[in-house]
Amino acid sequence: MNVISDTGIDLRPRSVTVNVISNTGTVFAREIAPSLRNPLGLAFTMTQPLIFLLLFGPLLSGTPGVGEGSPWQWFVPGILVMLALFGTGGAGYLLLIEMASGSLERMLVTPLSRTAMMIGRNLKEVVTLLAQAVLIVVALLPFGFRLHPLGALTGLLILAVFGLGLGGLTFALAIAAKRREELFYGVQQIVLFPLLLLSGVLMPMDAAPSWLSVLSRANPVTYIVEAERALFAGDLSSVPVLYGVIAAAATAVVGLALGTRAMRRATL
Known about the structure:
The chain has twelve helices and no strands. It has helices spanning 16-37, 40-44, 47-56, 71-87, 91-101, 103-108, 114-140, 149-176, 181-198, 210-217, 220-232, 239-265. Residues 1-9 have low confidence and may be disordered. By secondary structure, it is mostly helical.
């Protein structure tokens, strides 16, 4: 009996939990392999945040709300959140490509867990995000960015949780827009840019008009940005950190639930 499918997937029966874990590892290995073979792609996707850092960061020096120290201490954590928004937030794009090419159809007919398909792909995007975040932090150390290791590790963990949820949401959107790709890109841009601008990543929201402040406080990304800034400053016990954890966890729960549901209901 052949226990290996033509896609390289082990078809031997296992318990549900073991099967999902094993399948997740299989999908993750499949997705991460192209990135490992082409590490330049990792650097290419960092172009946008690096441009913001190099061209916009120096303008923040002395800006009210940024703080008296190096502007990098305020700006870098926000840029990492932006990296998550446009990195894991664009994960559904790759799923659209697979659906258009028929690659996803070949996966759907195998016994591979559909939950594992979603989680494995998400993990690939999160690992890429964390690698890029570490590279950015290391690159800014010679320019006055102070690293607080425990706070930074906690911040990266929150970023990973947030990225998992965001990736799940984009997978659900990609499957819903399977035959209308323009819908995916339209919704993505309409949602991501307001989330970015209202979160205070680029400029402090302290002096914003009242209506903008209200919208900013209704934006979950705002709390994640504030948590990242507190953590990278070495403050692990502040209220913004708690709010950031809640926002990231809520995004993960909703995103993974919707992404898994959409993947399970995906049709050929």
